[in-house]
Write a structure and sequence with these properties.
Length: about 160
């Protein structure tokens, strides 16, 4: 028929496999960490405007966190014990993010003494007002530049 509108050509949504996940449209989904012993996984979803991390327990419970480590997960009314971001507080350190000292210590499993030791060994800290933070790239560089721990003859690792 002469008056029929021409069909609109739709652009297909781009899909591409990556080394640790996939890109689908504007989103990139990556596997960040997992634990075979406790059967949890940590996934990351990034877009040009947002980053979130999704922690999935072995029972299928989800905890969703944004780049500022704010818990975005809805807590069910019968759930009185919300999970932490990752088991035992441990988690990935991304080079392109700034971490408050509290979060950094939690992610690395460090106590105050370990953090003080890292500061003395050269870990750079940024102060803004009363808040102290550390760049992820500084943490990664600091840890990669540490000499490997030498093994001792004692079972508990002390010399």
């Amino acid at each position: 028929m002469p008056n029929d509108p021409e069909p609109i050509a739709l652009n297909p949504i781009r899909y591409e496999d990556t080394q640790f996940g996939f890109r689908y449209g504007a989103a990139e989904v990556i596997r960040m960490a997992s634990c075979d012993k406790r059967h949890w996984v940590l996934l990351g979803i990034t877009t040009p405007k947002c980053k979130i991390q999704i922690y999935v327990t072995k029972t299928g419970k989800l905890r969703v966190f944004n780049g500022a480590d704010e818990d975005l997960s809805p807590i069910a009314s019968n759930d009185t014990t919300p999970d932490t971001a990752v088991p035992d507080g441990l988690g990935p350190i991304r080079e392109d993010e700034l971490y408050p000292v509290r979060v950094l210590k939690q992610r690395l499993g460090w106590g105050q003494a370990a953090f003080r030791h890292a500061r003395r060994k050269g870990l750079a800290v940024v102060r803004f007002g009363n808040t102290y933070s550390v760049h992820g790239r500084d943490v990664v560089a600091f840890l990669l530049n540490q000499p490997p721990k030498e093994k001792s003859g004692h079972a508990n690792g002390r010399s």
